[in-house]
Write a structure and sequence with these properties.
Layout lengths: L13 E5 L3 H12 L3 E5 L13 E3 L6 H10 L2 E4 L6 H8 L8 H8 L1 H11 L6 E4 L2 H5 L8 E5 L9 E4 L2 H10 L5 E5 L3 E11 L5 E3 L3 E6 L2 E7 L6 H17 L4 E10 L4 E7 L9 H4 L4 H9 L12 E8 L15 H5 L4 E5 L10 E9 L2 H15 L5
The structure holds adenosine-5'-triphosphate and magnesium ion.
């Protein structure tokens, strides 16, 4: 039991967030809409969340003085970035309520621990081997190949991953990542990818968003669709149950995203978890009566959780920096006015000044009464922006 459990914090309290990226920015917006003050810790003067927060502490995530200032300002603290050192969260927890707990974040930070947790919860994941030593490398079973070598820590958007076909390629790949601890996962025949956002309160109450269907391109989420025609209902409810048992198994408090693969034979396999709101849950800002960011505020502020209701079919398009270069080598602002002339389009930009290839600059949520309408509008928007059809 934590020395500072989550308790009811009325609007007017200050909610702190470790990390200043876009997820922190959208958290700050949701908290402020409900009358909370916000504090962000991020060294970057121009961080997306720092720019919109009442307080911005500009230090590194491990700076003891910065952490002490965050704790002093905040009535509760959360994180928006899973690579935030779990020790920093543990230090904060000595001074104020922290959700999710450092222990749960530590599991999500380490692919080996994460997979061990899936096994404990009885949720199938890809066959894998942990590789930390040359002996473990040599002992990898042949049937894990072809596979994907993933660094155990610090991977995101497909970074820290190498696809390997043979034992020789595997050995070379482990060398290329600096022989850091890794997991080798068997390459699975994917039919599709989906994810579930779960919110769990300090009292153990759990709610979830509808299951999202995700399309990745080059290891980065490109498109999320959420509507009834997305997935067979039995599969969707299986994903929700698995996500809830993973959250319960961690005694998790906060918003958790669980990513899944659906294999060609129709079976469901868990991929990974993110201990925070997730890119695939952004559609909830415009298509649900409670967004994933409001759920994060509610879990931190000890507010009741009610089951979110999706009121519109939704498609989310990620807006990567590449779109700024769709018409040439010098960066040009995409034609937002043309896109916003389409009904049901909602533009979210993260306030990043510099567009770079692969950098998440914003997203576009498209809502409509029916799935075919949402898809049709999303395809029109994609054509205007230079996003390949899906
Ligand atoms: P992010 O944190 O951005 O979600 P990540 O870098 O943590 O991504 P993963 O989710 O592990 O990476 O993998 C990225 C993508 O690579 C997956 O969404 C999937 O498309 C593909 N992939 C990963 N593991 C496997 C696997 N075992 N078999 C087949 N495809 C896989
Ligand atoms: Mg992933």
């Amino acid at each position: 039991m934590s020395a500072h459990p989550i308790r009811y914090l009325p609007p007017g309290s200050t909610l702190g967030v470790l990390g200043g990226g876009q997820l922190g920015r959208m958290f700050a917006h949701a908290a402020q809409a409900m009358g909370y003050f916000t504090a962000v810790l991020d060294a970057d003067v121009e961080s997306p969340a720092g720019r919109v927060s009442h307080h911005h502490i500009q230090t590194g995530y491990e700076d003891p003085d910065g952490l002490a200032r965050l704790a002093a300002l905040s009535d509760a603290v959360t994180t928006e970035f899973e690579n935030v050192p779990a020790v920093s969260l543990a230090a904060l927890a000595g001074q104020c309520p922290v959700a999710p707990a450092a222990r749960a974040v530590a599991v999500a930070q380490d692919r080996a621990q994460e997979k061990a947790h899936f096994v404990r919860c009885g949720v199938p994941c890809a066959p894998y081997a942990v590789i930390e030593t040359a002996e473990q490398l040599a002992a990898v079973p042949a049937d894990l190949l072809p596979g994907i070598l993933k660094t155990a820590r610090l991977g995101y958007d497909g970074k820290g991953q190498v696809r390997v076909k043979t034992a020789a390629e595997l050995a070379a790949a482990w060398g290329s990542v600096g022989q850091v601890p890794c997991v080798l996962e068997k390459m699975l025949p994917l039919q599709l990818e989906c994810s579930v956002i779960v919110a769990r309160g300090a009292d153990g109450a759990t709610v979830h968003l509808p299951v999202q269907r995700n399309l990745h391109r080059d290891g980065i989420l490109a498109v999320t669709e959420v509507h009834e025609e997305n997935l067979p209902p039995a599969l969707a409810s299986q994903a929700v149950s698995a996500a809830i048992s993973i959250a319960q198994g961690l005694d998790y408090v906060g918003v958790l995203c669980v990513e899944f693969f659906v294999l060609q034979d129709g079976s469901l396999v868990v991929n990974e978890i993110a201990p925070r709101p997730h890119n695939s849950g952004h559609y909830s800002q415009n298509a649900c009566d409670v967004s994933q960011f409001e759920l994060q505020v509610r879990t931190m502020a000890g507010l009741p959780l009610t089951q979110p209701r999706q009121h519109s079919a939704a498609v989310m398009l990620n807006l990567l920096g590449d779109l700024w270069f769709a018409r040439g080598e010098t960066a040009q602002t995409p034609p937002w006015a043309e896109v916003l002339a389409l009904p049901g389009t909602h533009l979210h930009l993260y306030g990043k000044t510099l567009a770079k290839h692969g950098r998440k600059m914003g997203h576009l949520n498209i809502t409509a009464p029916t799935a075919p309408q949402a898809r049709a509008t999303a395809l029109q928007a994609a054509a205007i922006l230079g996003i390949a059809p899906f």
